[in-house]
Write a structure and sequence with these properties.
Strand content of chain A: over 45%
Order of helices and strands of chain B: EEEEEEEEEEE
Radius of gyration of chain B: 13 Å
Order of helices and strands of chain A: EEEEEEEEEEE
Largest sheet of chain A: 6 strands, mixed
Number of helices of chain A: 0
Shape of chain A: globular
Helix content of chain A: under 10%
Number of helices of chain B: 0
Number of strands of chain B: 11
Radius of gyration of chain A: 13 Å
Number of strands of chain A: 11
Shape of chain B: globular
Distance between the termini of chain B: 37 Å
Helix content of chain B: under 10%
Largest interface: A-B, 22 and 26 residues
Distance between the termini of chain A: 38 Å
Structural class of chain B: mainly beta
Structural class of chain A: mainly beta
Strand content of chain B: over 45%
Oligomer: heterodimer
């Protein structure tokens, strides 16, 4: 049973490109949603929380559609430093544990 | 900026040996977690800990695993008799409460030979 699914990737894009990642989750009771990024052999680091109204942080925009149980992340004007694996993370309302998606790897090419 | 710390960064052990992985969560956080990530796979929840007891655990967290907060700062994960399949990166995380963002430590890479 897959609880959080993401685009399989990898995504290879040129610098300056806009790239979008998609994520779906199976537990309709989930309440908190996050995007983390993980560099190779490093810990996950919070990129942004995802709110129902959608939110933006610089070049990054996150959207949540509760009816479709779908989360997205848009990266505009991508930089070389954006190269990483992007993890969709959902917090089950009935527990404290995070459920991680398998991640989508992004490589931004010069 | 406060951060979660973990020691050691890399632990190599023989199959059947006991290992203790150590974590120091962020000081004003109340919930503590262990996750593992087998190389090339997704991050998996092991256990959460609050108010000096386990609040939730996954099916991975069997009788070989235990957690402890021996003092006011450390949070440990013990694997009693390691198996080859325990080889993974183990991440500690902490947060302040429900729906709060979790902050992850740098991880301990466990290699079981």
């Amino acid at each position: 049973r897959k609880e959080v699914e993401q685009d399989p990737g990898p995504f290879n894009v040129p610098e300056g490109a806009t790239v979008a990642f998609n994520c779906t989750y199976s537990n309709s009771a989930s309440q908190s949603f996050f995007w983390y990024r993980q560099d190779c052999r490093k810990e996950p680091k919070l990129l942004m929380s995802v709110y129902s109204s959608g939110n933006e942080d610089g070049r990054f925009t996150a959207q949540l559609n509760r009816a479709s149980q779908y989360i997205s992340l848009l990266i505009r004007d991508s930089k070389l430093s954006d190269s990483a694996t992007y993890l969709c993370v959902v917090n089950d309302n009935y527990g404290q544990n995070f459920v991680f998606g398998p991640g989508t790897r992004l490589s931004v090419l010069p | 900026e406060p951060e979660v710390t973990q020691t050691p960064s890399h632990q190599v052990t023989q199959m059947g040996q006991e290992v203790i992985l150590r974590c120091v969560p962020i000081s004003n956080h109340l919930y503590f977690y262990w996750y593992r990530q087998i190389l090339g796979q997704k991050v998996e929840f092991l256990v959460s800990f609050y108010n000096n007891e386990i609040s939730e655990k996954s099916e991975i967290f069997d009788d070989q695993f235990s957690v402890e907060r021996p003092d006011g700062s450390n949070f440990t994960l013990k694997i009693r008799s390691t198996k080859l399949e325990d080889s993974a990166m183990y991440f500690c995380a902490s947060d302040r409460g429900v729906e709060d963002t979790q902050y992850f430590g740098p991880g301990t890479r466990l290699t079981v030979l």
